[in-house]
């Protein structure tokens, strides 16, 4: 398995280089068809959206052979903190690969669960609108919306919501309409980002006057999730629907990177033959602006990496901003560990998203309660020893003692991050504080920034106080 993964990566890199020859992007590069990985790395610098923005504009105007041979079929739009809306090229081939990955996942699930009637299962995926808009001459939409246009024929029969409902732009209206379309169907597979599926559950139970989702969908078998860690939503999610199988996926506008290929076993199988060539930079090096790139063969288990991708759609050593951690090399399996841009180091603590995720999950396991959404930011005061981390948490069910929860959460954070522990121990900063957010508070924040619903995700960790300032102004419990 390990050997074939490396062979897959070498083959894909050769194809990417070959197809890129003659494009505007490679016209100034010394890159032969037979280039080795080291030659590729020396010739192709790391890119981000700003560095390819001019190429994207040319593509939008109908020009061909810009980033690679030909032209993409769509742009998938994503949002960034520094570049605003990003338009990521997607070719027909890469869209087929996205669809193929989902088919593989469902077939693996059928094999492991013994549920082979996939085409007859009622399926509902909460996703972005499939309605296409245009950036100059190029159609674009959210990736999940584009994916809704490429559903395999054998899954279309019992798949929801309808195209008409999926195109509703107002998220509140869309959720209500999805409920009306699905409440009386034999739904067996659900998919979507956890907080938005939980919102659907609440609306579904309110509409049907039921207490648990399996009273509405007695044959519910599988929940497919991705885009953010499920760990801190799991207790809330299963509280709505009881025990169901769950599988994690890692699709992105840049490519379909990984999926959970084994039920009840953590880790995502890195897809090494799905049109993407991967490179990795150790997160600790990345923070120091040391961009030493490694190919798959050279990664280490247990290390956090920032992931770069080159793709058949024309991305070259593109910084995804995602961080991953390898938990196995035989086969190559990863955990999504966060975003390189999501960190908190206001006091020199260098806390990353995965650390707050694990600390919260462990604390909930110890004390009970369940969480709908959360976010962490610094509280900087004139006296440094009074400064601290503020945890804004929207509970579905509060633990019996918030005082104990807060104490244990701080202890868990000290276990996760030695810098944080040292700052607390030396009295440089105070222990963390929890503020309980009113139900719907995080939804209101996402509305305020125009990112409510769909595949949008609330940041769980910030180095500034933007989210905290909003929530403190009317959305925190007394």
The residue-averaged pLDDT reads 90
Q: How many individual helices?
A: 16
**Basic shape:** globular
Count of beta strands = 21
Proportion of β residues? 15-25%
CATH superfamily grouping of the largest domain: ANL, N-terminal domain
Helix content, binned percent: 25-40%
Helix/strand-derived category reads alpha/beta
> What is the CATH architecture term of the largest domain?
3-Layer(aba) Sandwich
Main pleated-sheet profile: 12 strands, mixed
End-to-end C-alpha gap: 55 Å
Low-confidence stretches: none
Q: What is the CATH fold-level name of the largest domain?
A: Rossmann fold
**What is the level 1 CATH name of the largest domain?**
Alpha Beta
Cα radius of gyration in angstroms: 23 Å
Number of domains: 2
SSE layout:
Blueprint: H1 2-20, H2 37-43, H3 49-60, E1 74-80, E2 84-90, H4 92-113, E3 122-125, E4 133-135, E5 138-141, H5 143-148, E6 159-160, H6 163-166, H7 171-182, E7 187-191, H8 194-208, H9 213-216, E8 222-226, H10 231-241, E9 245-252, E10 255-259, E11 268-270, E12 276-282, H11 283-287, E13 294-295, E14 304-311, E15 318-329, E16 332-339, E17 343-344, E18 351-352, H12 353-367, E19 370-379, E20 388-397, H13 402-416, H14 418-425, E21 433-436, H15 441-448, H16 466-472
Helix pairs in contact: 7-8, 8-10, 12-13, 13-14
């Amino acid at each position: 398995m390990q050997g074939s993964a490396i062979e897959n990566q070498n083959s894909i890199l050769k194809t990417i280089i070959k197809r890129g020859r003659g494009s505007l992007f490679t016209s100034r590069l010394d890159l032969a068809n037979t280039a080795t990985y080291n030659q590729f790395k020396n010739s192709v610098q790391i890119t981000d959206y700003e560095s390819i923005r001019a190429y994207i504009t040319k593509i939008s105007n109908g020009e061909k052979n810009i980033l690679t041979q030909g032209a993409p079929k769509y742009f998938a739009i994503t949002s960034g903190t520094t570049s605003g809306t990003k338009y990521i090229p997607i070719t027909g081939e890469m869209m087929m690969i996205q669809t193929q990955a989902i088919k593989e996942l469902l077939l693996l699930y059928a094999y492991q669960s013994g549920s082979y009637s996939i085409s007859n299962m009622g399926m509902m995926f909460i996703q972005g609108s499939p309605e296409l808009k245009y950036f100059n001459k190029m159609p674009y939409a959210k990736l999940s919306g584009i994916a809704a246009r490429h559903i395999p024929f054998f899954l279309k029969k019992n798949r929801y919501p309808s195209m008409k409902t999926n195109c509703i732009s107002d998220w509140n209206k869309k959720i209500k309409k999805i409920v009306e379309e699905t409440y009386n169907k034999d739904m067996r597979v659900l998919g979507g980002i956890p907080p938005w599926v939980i919102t659907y559950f609440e609306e579904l139970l309110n509409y049907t006057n039921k207490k648990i989702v399996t009273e509405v969908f007695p044959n519910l078998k599988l929940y497919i999730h991705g885009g953010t860690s499920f760990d801190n939503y799991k207790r809330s999610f299963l509280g709505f629907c009881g025990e169901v199988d769950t599988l994690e996926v890692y699709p992105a506008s840049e490519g379909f990177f990984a999926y959970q290929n084994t039920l009840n076993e953590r880790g995502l199988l890195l897809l090494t033959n799905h049109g993407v060539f991967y490179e990795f930079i150790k997160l600790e090096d990345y923070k120091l602006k040391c961009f030493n790139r490694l190919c798959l063969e050279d990664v280490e288990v247990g290390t956090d990496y920032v992931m770069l991708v080159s793709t058949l759609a024309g991305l070259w050593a593109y910084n995804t901003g995602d961080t991953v951690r390898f938990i196995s090399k035989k086969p190559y399996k990863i955990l999504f560990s966060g975003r390189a841009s999501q960190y908190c180091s206001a006091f020199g603590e260098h806390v990353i998203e995965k650390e707050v995720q694990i600390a919260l999950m462990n604390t909930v396991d110890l004390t009970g309660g369940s969480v709908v959404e959360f976010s962490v930011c610094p509280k900087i005061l004139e006296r440094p020893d009074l400064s601290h981390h503020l945890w804004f948490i929207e509970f579905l069910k509060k633990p019996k003692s918030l005082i104990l929860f807060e104490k244990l959460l701080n202890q868990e954070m000290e276990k996760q991050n030695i810098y944080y522990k040292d700052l607390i121990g030396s009295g440089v900063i105070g222990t963390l504080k929890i503020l309980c957010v009113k139900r719907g508070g995080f939804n209101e924040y996402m509305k305020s920034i125009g990112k409510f619903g769909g595949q949008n995700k609330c940041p769980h960790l910030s180095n500034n106080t933007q989210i905290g300032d909003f929530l403190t102004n009317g959305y925190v419990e007394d």
